[in-house]
Amino acid sequence: MKKEKDLTTGSIFKSLVFLAWPIIMANVLQTMYQLIDTFWLGRLGANAVASVSLSFPILFLVLSLGGGLTLAGTVIVAQHKGANNQKKVNYSSSQTVMVIFLISILLAFVGYFSASPLMKFVGAGPEVFQDSVDYFQVSSWGFIFLFMFFVFQSLMRGIGEVFMPMYIVLATVLLNLVLDPLFIFGYGPIEGQGVAGAAVASIITQGLSAVAGLWILFRGSYGIRIKFSQMKPDFKWIKKLFQLGIPSSLDQSSRAAGMTVMVMLVTGYGSEIVAAYGVGARILSLVIVPALGFAMATTSLVGQNFGAGKIVRTEKVANLSAMIALVGLTSVGLIFFFFAEAIIAFFVPGDEQVIRDGALFIKIMAPSFGLLGVQQVLNGAFNGVGMTTVSMLISIFSLWIVRFPLAWMLSEKTTLSYEGIWWAFPASNLLAAIVAFAYFKSGTWKKRKPVRH
């Protein structure tokens, strides 16, 4: 069995970096799937890209459910790992795999048979309707493989093994580079399937990653060994998984819905403002990748130290992680601030109004990137001690109680117009960071008991 790094002793900074950078790289590589699909589908025309774009919000909401439950697996396994209870690490992992597998089968069937009404619901026009339905139906069967890899990734993170999932993601992304054009356009005996071909290529790569992940878990060579004999449903344990996982699922899905609602505000100001917002939103999504990477690393590190009963070290982990996020992402924000015009011009060359409005959006939003990092990292700390409901409530507060109402009020009821939407971003980042920091410093989390079942 591979020698494991003890994350409950030694340098906290080294442990954070050790966990965070492979997670960040894996997240970056995961986004490459979408970019590769978009690149090749763009060769079929705008309708092909549009048909996939229509599916994405619904696919993201479905994946949020799986992501929340697998995060719960991370928390439970991390705490058992910190308590040095290998038997419960293996049992919890076996139960998590069983639950996620059953849920993925259910969602695959629901997704396949509801594809047509769902595409009508999101407003698919006649020119893209059939392609969007085909893409969604094929992608639905991929839920089984995708969720199995998610659970492998999450369980590995729980015990601090973050490199193997990154290597698997890298291999599948490289394979997807070849399979996408092969199944979209066809070659030799393989017939091109158009938009559905992109989904077929993704399913093959996802299937290979799922098989690799499950093989590693059953073999037990990387710190976790699952067994079929431990997959008999334990309803008391499953209840705990859902108690931790559902709030996290709602947290992730509320973020997706929040960004969608903000787009609805922007669309009333014309295509130039929509374009400026679109580029700014892409910049924000790039910044969120390292923020979420550090948050996931914090969840694993906090979970293990909290499970080991090391409360003082747990607090030091959260404090240091928040400081790194604040300083690191504020520095990144300042770089974006000073090069805002050049960044927008790279995406939308030659359109002076979009460059001006987009640069203003970045300059208003970018200095608060560090505050966004603090909120995400402290949410990761709350998740690590099992307080996933707190993370969910802070995210809802940020997006639905501050950002959206403030954006509407400033844009509709003041002379700021669309600039009011821009100002809602740093305001919500500041208030959410203050609330998360104040609640963490209150020490309420210290009274919580580690998972022991």
Automatic annotation (TrEMBL):
Q: What is this protein called?
A: Multidrug-efflux transporter
Keyword Ion transport in the entry? The reply is yes
UniProt keyword terms in alphabetical order: Antiport, Cell membrane, Ion transport, Membrane, Transmembrane, Transmembrane helix, Transport
GO MF terms here are: antiporter activity; xenobiotic transmembrane transporter activity
Per the UniProt record, which residue ranges are transmembrane? 12-36, 56-77, 97-115, 135-155, 167-188, 194-218, 256-277, 283-303, 324-348, 354-374, 381-401, 421-440
The protein's location, in the record's own words, is: Cell membrane
- State one Pfam family annotation: MatE
Principal subcellular localization: membrane
State the signal peptide span: none
Q: Which NCBIfam families match?
A: matE
Q: For this chain's UniProt record, which GO biological process terms are given?
A: monoatomic ion transport
CDD domains linked: MATE_like_12 (cd13142)
Under the cellular component aspect of Gene Ontology, which terms does the record hold? Answer: plasma membrane
Tell me what organism the protein belongs to: Owenweeksia hongkongensis (strain DSM 17368 / CIP 108786 / JCM 12287 / NRRL B-23963 / UST20020801)
InterPro entries named among the record's database cross-references: MATE_fam, MATE_MdtK, MdtK-like
What topology in the membrane does the UniProt record assign?
Multi-pass membrane protein
